[in-house]
Amino acid sequence: MGEHPQISKTGENLTRDEIAANFDDLHPPLNLAQVRVQSSRCLFCHDAPCVTACPTSIDIPKFIRQIATENVTGAARTILSANIMGGTCARACPTEILCEQKCVLNVGEDEPIEIGALQRHAVDHFMAEGRAHPFVRAAATGKKIAILGAGPAGLACAHALAILGHDVEIFEARKKPGGLNEYGLAAYKMANDFAAQETAFILEIGGITIHYEKALGRDVTLGDLRAQFDAVFIGHGLGHSNQLGIDGEDQDGVLDALEFIAQLRQTDDKSKIKIGQNIIVIGGGNTAIDAAVQAKRLGANHVALVYRRGASQMGATDWEQDLARINGVAVHLWAKPLRLNGEGQVQSVTFETTRLENGKLVGTGNTHEAQADMVLKAVGQFLDDDALGGLQTERGKILVDQYGQTSLPGTFAGGDCIASGEDLTVQAVEDGKVAAAGIHAFLGGK
Fold first, then answer.
1. Domain total for the chain?
2. pLDDT tens track for 232-251
3. Residue 277 class from Cβ within 10 Å (0-12 exposed, 13-18 middle, 19+ buried)?
4. Same domain, 360 and 288
5. Considering the chain, what is the average pLDDT of its residues?
6. If you placed Cys at 76, which of 126, 307, 353, 354 could pair as Cys (CB 3.0 to 4.6 Å)?
7. Contact 65, 44 (CB under 8 A)
8. In CATH, what number is assigned to the domain containing residue 110?
9. Interval 177-201: pLDDT, tens
């Protein structure tokens, strides 16, 4: 989706305006001339590989042809009929390793069409026009479905069920809807409160009610929901962050990276956020990158991302790794944390150098100490299955069949809490769609 942006300034003593500029849109939208150029390059392939690379199977050649013929509204409808969160996915999904990587122009011209940017152009145009919702509800069925979680999977499932005429009630643990789109993505990827705008757009279909601050196991139980509703969909993600499991982890200055990102997303004036000047981010996924880059853009003097394996084993894409480096983040590989040092406030981290032996990660015995006044942990999340009422799980994920149904009849699941693919918004949307079709069939006795 274009070149990496250059930020205005990093390091200490950033002004409020400089910080605001650092959190502006990572990918500025294409102008009309760029849209015309990009849409004109498409070969409109038969059995296009870009479509099969998209988890939601958006008809990419069709919507690009519609853009090229100035039918931008039609293009948006094509996108949204396959992916109701096409706006977020155009901004935040790794199109460089999905649809754009499969573009046939990679072979001939070494430069794929900017599919994500064209998708954003169409969806943003449609939403900015304030047109009526592009979908209409079917006649009411009288069926009620409960959904746990107002994240991408839950909202996609709810929208698809509402179109089919069912009534949906969503139980959301937080004060706002959107899930990781609202709380867990870097602010520069979701500028101008887009997650909230997209959620409001989705809810325009009608038939969807959201109950906030209602968490599974605390405020609602799976048993009660199954008794009160005709079907249940679980889309509340994994929910709990892994710990490092080392000494000193409970000290001040040691934070979960997702909590740090959530604070950023929910703070309008980011210059008021307290930030360390010597920060270490532990982890190798996109969350670690988002935390590290944002810490640098807030004005941290030095930010280091430390991962226990090599670059090829990192969960973060090559594009995200490059983004970290051009933002001034120092990336250190083959080092695992042994302990966090300090007396109530973290002051340094002791690392051990690692290597692979017969495919297994081992420590070498060589250690070194790195100074830090803030440590951000980004070492993954896990599923808390205590409140799942005996649902069958495997390797920390809820087991589902091809229809998204769990081991309990009438109870479905999707998103990060199941093992359907990469933990991406686009995959969560597809899981929600699959489960909605499964629920509809279940309610019809099929």
1. 3
2. 999 999 988 999 999 999 99
3. middle
4. yes
5. 94
6. 126
7. yes
8. 1.10.1060.10
9. 999 999 999 999 999 999 999 999 9
